[in-house]
Amino acid sequence: MDEDTIEWHRELHDKIFVDFKEHVDKHREGKLKESELHRIFNADVMVGSEAKEVGLIDEVGIIEEVMDEKYPEIKVVDFAKKSPF
Length: 85
Known about the structure:
4 helices
């Protein structure tokens, strides 16, 4: 890759990081383990159980099952187009 492409990737990475951090700070306030912030914000990939452990997510599972359990009064509607194949 040439230097321009490398710089473009760095800038894109920085923007994604800022957006991610702002979103997590806003929507996970009070749920994150302070001692694990370095793991959350260092761009490492986590499996679901790790993300739950550090407070990044509430549950691991299939969305319909989790929603039924946590919010039985809410009906999840699937608007995805079904493939004819």
